Amino acid sequence: MSQPPSLGASPQGQAGQGGKTGPHVRYGVSDPISLQEAEPNDLLLSEQMREHLETVFPTETPEGMDRRQGVLQELERMFHDWMCKLCAEANLSEEEIRKSTVKITTLGSYRLGVVHPGSDIDTLCIAPPVIRREDFFSTFATQLEQHEDVAECMPIPDAYTPIIKLKMRGVCIDLLFARLARAPDAELAEEVVKEDEVLKNMDEKSVRCLNGFRVADQILKLVPDQETFRRTLRFIKYWARRRGIYSNIVGFFGGITWSLLVARICQLYPYYAPNQLINRFFRLYHQWNWTRPVTLCEIVDPAAGLYL
Asked: How far apart are CA 290 and CA 293, in angstroms?
């Protein structure tokens, strides 16, 4: 196997050593530490890093992404048909059913755009008020179990964040369920659930399930450059997995936590290349006072009736 490239920033790319600086920008809760732009050598090192990482921790293939997209489309079709049936049984009119039928969306690494062949898809089913969580974990889970393409299906309704874990066409899916207090039009569902107002009067379990989607969406909005963020995050995820410290189940950071940490470094060095960001990642968090939270934006006190 080829040796990995040196990831340290080039001497010309070190802060305080001159070089071009970009226009002043501010992302997050403070001004950036450096506005210095990446030197050509840093761009070269970052590309070498990307090529090496592709050999040891490859991204999902186009065929694999097509298979994943097909699985998501099949799940959305099943969810849509199941919801329409329940809505009809509740004597809703066709117009009400059309407005009540919302959708399936993704969160986690899939939504962030950091997908490799072995990763699962964190998926959120957004349902109108007429659909009960109990129905989701009983009748819909039964439909999933009976589907010819589903090899495994394990509902866990009593978890802190209730979930159905399944495997369809070889793709592992973690399926969450959120019940809205008010039903938006289907085509507006993804935009509506990004707003704090939608959390009013929702049950706590639904809010927790929505949280992953909302956080991933916010991260992508709060970083200076999404592609630089993704390339840096891929390296950090690979590093953490290799060292056996990538799992919130056993007490380490999970995927969303590593994503938040990388996003903050991107905010502090908005014009750096991935190799420079990785260098700063380890420097900054080695010295970090962990009694202080790492925050990407100002924390706003929630309005009454919202669980945040």
From this structure: 7
Instruction: Give CA 107 to chain center in angstroms.
Output: 4
Catalytic option among 246, 269, 271, 272: 246
Q: Could you give the count of Cα atoms lying within 13 Å of 264 in the half-sphere of its Cβ?
A: 18
Q: Residues 149-184: pLDDT tens digits?
A: 999 999 999 999 999 999 999 999 999 999 988 876
Residues 71 and 191 occupy one common structural domain = yes
CB 303 within 8 A of CB 196: yes
Choice among 109, 119, 206, 259 that is catalytic: 109
Are 231 and 274 a contacting pair, CB within 8 Å?
yes
99 is catalytic: no
- Per-residue pLDDT tens digits for 36-95: 999 999 999 999 999 999 999 999 999 999 999 999 999 999 999 998 888 888 887 777
My answer on whether 184 and 281 are in the same domain is no
Domain of residue 43 covers: 11-56+223-287
Residue 306, domain member (yes or no):
no
